[in-house]
Write a structure and sequence with these properties.
Elements: H1 6-14, E1 24-31, E2 35-40, E3 46-51, E4 54-59, E5 64-69, E6 81-83, E7 92-94, E8 96-97, E9 112-119, E10 122-128, E11 145-151, E12 154-159, E13 165-170, E14 173-179
Antiparallel strand pairs: 1-14, 2-3, 2-8, 3-4, 4-5, 6-7, 9-10, 10-11, 12-13, 13-14
Length: 182
């Protein structure tokens, strides 16, 4: 029943992890012990990170940590929300991570992030170029994509609401990418 997917599975199996294509660049990989969830501010490319050791805020355009709170924080986890700190104080941020949820997986100019599991438990994260489609080759459409990560502990991945940055969060780190042109 899935024989029509064999060419796609073969193609995806051959993909090696590569650096992100233009206009994207990796800004930082930040160690976060016991990462539980991440969430973006709606107006700016600020990421709230919740871990077993507290909360932090990362500026995803620069890749720099801008705030840190070492107090344990488990409130509203089951509701996929967390209270912001520092520049996000007073805001309730929608989160994605251990308890579910999701970040945006497509930008206004049609960049997409896809998660594919070919060899469980490893998940591959694919950055699909605008005008392309993960299943494009099955339907005579473009299927230009780059495999940018593979890990068995991916907690969340997705774009900021501005579309200027994206993150891949595992149980132990968060990797931040942003557009070179800002």
């Amino acid at each position: 029943m899935t024989s029509h997917l064999e060419p796609l599975i073969k193609k995806l199996s051959k993909l090696a992890i590569v650096a992100t294509p233009a206009p994207w660049e990796r800004k930082a990989s930040i160690a976060v012990g016991g990462l539980r969830a991440v969430g973006f501010d709606r107006e700016r490319d600020l990421l709230l990170v919740v871990s077993a050791q507290g909360r932090g805020v990362v500026d995803c355009i620069t890749g720099k940590k801008v705030e840190r709170d070492d107090e344990e924080y488990y409130e509203n986890e089951e509701h996929l929300e967390a209270e912001g700190i520092g520049p996000l104080s007073g805001k309730l941020i929608i989160m994605a991570g251990l308890f579910g949820g999701g970040l945006p997986t497509i930008t206004a100019d049609r960049w997409q992030l896809e998660s594919v599991t070919l060899k469980w438990p490893d998940k591959s994260i694919l950055l699909v170029h605008p005008g392309s489609d993960l299943f494009g080759s099955l339907y005579s459409r473009p299927d230009e994509m780059s495999k940018i990560a593979e890990d068995s502990t991916i907690r969340a991945y997705g774009f900021s609401h501005t579309g200027k940055s994206f993150v891949i969060a595992t149980s132990s780190d968060v990797t931040v990418y942003a557009r070179k042109d800002g």
